[in-house]
Amino acid sequence: MTGRDRVTRLRATVSGHARATIAGRDVHVHYEDGVTRRAEAPDADGECPYPGLAAFTAEQSQWFFGRDALTARLVERAAERLDEGGPLVVVAPSGAGKSSLLRAGLLTAIDRGALPVRGSARWPRLVLTPTDQPVLEHERDQRAAARRRTRRLKLFVALLTALVLVLAATATYAVIAERRADQARTRAVAQQAVMKATSLISTRPELAVALAHAAYRVVPTPETRDALLTAHLAVSRIPRGDAALRTASVRIGPPGRVAFASEQSGILLWRVLADRAVPGARLSQEFQYYYNPFINDSVMVFEVEEHTDVWSIDDPAVPRRIAALPRRVQVFSASSDGRVLLGYEPQSSTEDSGMVRSLWDVSDPAAPTEIALPCDVVVGRVRPDGQVFASTCAEDGGASIRFWRITGNHALQPLAEVPLGSSGTGVFDYSTGGDYLVITEQPDEWARILDVSDEHDPRPWSEVRPGGEGYQFSFSEEDRTLVVHDNVEVSFWSLADPARPERLSTVRTVFPLSHVPVYRPEFGDYVYSDGQEIWRLDRDAHSVTAKICQREDLRLGDDDWRQFLPEVDRVPVCP
User: Fold this and answer.
1) How confident is the model over 452-467, as pLDDT tens digits?
2) Where are the alpha helices (DSSP H) in 142-200?
3) CA distance linking residue 434 with residue 5, whole number of Å
4) Using alpha carbons only, how large is the chain's radius of gyration in Å?
5) Residues 537, 533: Cα–Cα separation, whole Å
6) Do 499 and 514 meet the contact criterion of CB atoms below 8 Å apart?
7) Angular region, 95: left φ>0, alpha ψ -120 to 50, beta rest
8) pLDDT at residue 1 in the model
9) pLDDT tens-digit profile of 192-202?
10) Pairing outcome for strands 294-295 and 277-283
11) Does residue 379 register a pLDDT over 50?
12) Is 60 exceeded by the pLDDT of residue 278?
């Protein structure tokens, strides 16, 4: 047949204990318990998928397209609220689609089990349009519901109360969100300024300092702080009076008051002040040394022909020779007053390392006395007060550190012994005041610190594991700061709480370090040499900021601010 005479045949199949009958376009399902349900056939014309100005409902979710990413993000935020607590607010201008997103997007996604919470698909939900009496209207619509939903209704009422409060605070939350966005944008701009400052250190150091300083004042984070300290190091060279001398042997003796440089014509001394180095005397005689001369603020020791000279440098302008050891000794450890010296003696034999250690007492410059060592010393150090000697011995594989008291009759009296780790080897040194011993054990590259203030009972104090390889350690007694460094990076660790070492800052040096950074307690900074110049290194951002603010050339100008810190309101970088 064709046209109006066409016949449509319908057939229905049901599951379970039921039967189906068809009356016209309706399907009737009859269950054994007497319940009858009717499924109406859809209208021939179908429902329009475009609701116009009305919001999409959950029943119209099949036509809600183009908001999948936004719906997923909303579900994610809802899950975060479940963990952290608090309401979730959707804020947008009128007509932007908030109701459609919540009804056809979020609620439908929850129905599908999008929330990672068991049973969330069956949670009750309440959709209200605020009126003068929204609760009463809702209760009137729900009077026909079963009694089993009574308890859920209370939860809905509580949710409604929360939503009313959230609607009242929408403006406040919007302001907070905008403020957080501004902060994130400012932080990103400051980070870009830090990267630019780092790239300018070698070519325009003053601009690098000004830019890093501005970024730190805008966003004072550990990253901007370290960038500020690194940039400031580039303008912290300590000028030396003798500019004509250029050598690769500049060294600084602890605690940073005296430096020297060696060249073919001899050795030149400087007294290192806060911001300059004043030339001292020149030792112009011929020197032969197989190791860099030892230096601290009291003595300088170097080999001369077949013996070893010990010079007093209390006054670098007027050094004086105070003793001569009868053999060649490459001194590497000494008491702070230069009275007790420990060093290597080069041997003609090639057995083992070709070196032996010797310990000397030069209290009487006219008669230096050698102190007999208790074993074949692998590593040894003299405590700064010259009263205790610490060493590892080759006989036991360097498995422990032994402590000895240096007696008045030039003998060593045993005090205590501290075992080392599984490696059985370690490099160690005393702190400035001698109350602590820093131990580096291979191959782990970590520092173990012992409290050796009681020479008879050394105790573990702290551990620092900086990571990486090739680190060296030095210790600042006055402020309990451990300095961890390789040849290009210096990190400062606070040991105020020995159980929890805290990284204070990290500075990348302008040029590679040739020697250990030396702490200067009177100036609160460190100095180091790259082999040719002397540099002042600060670890405190407040101190650096004060120094920068004393110089007009280290303040970022308006044009540079607009170029490197766009969209960031200018703030005063100096008081």
Assistant:
1) 989 899 998 888 877 6
2) 150-168, 170-200
3) 112
4) 40
5) 13
6) no
7) left
8) 43
9) 888 888 888 88
10) unpaired
11) yes
12) yes
The alpha carbon dihedral of 244, 246, 249, 253 has a sign of positive
243, burial (CB in 10 Å: exposed 0-12, middle 13-18, buried 19+): exposed
Mean pLDDT of 10-31: 61
Structure token pair of residue 348: 């003609």
Residues 6+ apart with CB under 8 A from 530: 509, 510, 511, 512, 513, 514
- Indicate the pLDDT class of residue 351, thresholds 50, 70 and 90: very low
Handedness of CA 343, 347, 350, 351 (dihedral sign): negative
Supply the pLDDT for residue 340: 92
367, 368, 376, 321: which is closest to 344 by C-alpha?
376
Query: What kind and span of H or E run contains 21?
Result: strand 18-23
Q: What is the DSSP string of 253-304?
A: ETTTTEEEEEETTEEEEEEE-SS-EEEEEEE-S----SSPPEE-SSEEEEEE
The neighbouring-strand residues paired with 446 are: 441
Q: CB within 8 A of 302, min separation 6: which ones?
A: 267, 287, 289, 293, 294, 308, 309
What average pLDDT does the structure give for the chain? 77
| β-pair partners for 549 | none
Give the C-alpha separation, 482 to 500, whole Å.
13
Q: Which residues partner with 262 through β-bridges? A: 267
The dihedral region occupied by 445, where left means phi > 0, alpha psi between -120 and 50, and beta the remainder, is left
Residue 496 tokens read as 């105020």
Residue 239 reports pLDDT greater than 60: yes
Q: Are strands 26-31 and 277-283 parallel, antiparallel or unpaired?
A: unpaired
Q: Are 344 and 392 contacting, i.e. CB atoms less than 8 angstroms apart?
A: no
Find, among 384, 305, 375, the residue nearest to 341 by Cα.
384
Cα–Cα distances in angstroms (integers) from residue 46 to residues 41, 43, 49, 149, 267, in the given order: 10, 5, 9, 34, 102
- In this structure, the strands spanning 320-325 and 307-312 are antiparallel
CA distances from 442 to 398, 419, 421 (A): 12, 14, 9
- Residues 177-200 as b/e (b if ≥16 CB within 10 A, e otherwise) read eeeeeeeeebbebbbebbebbbeb
CA distance 416 to 389: 11
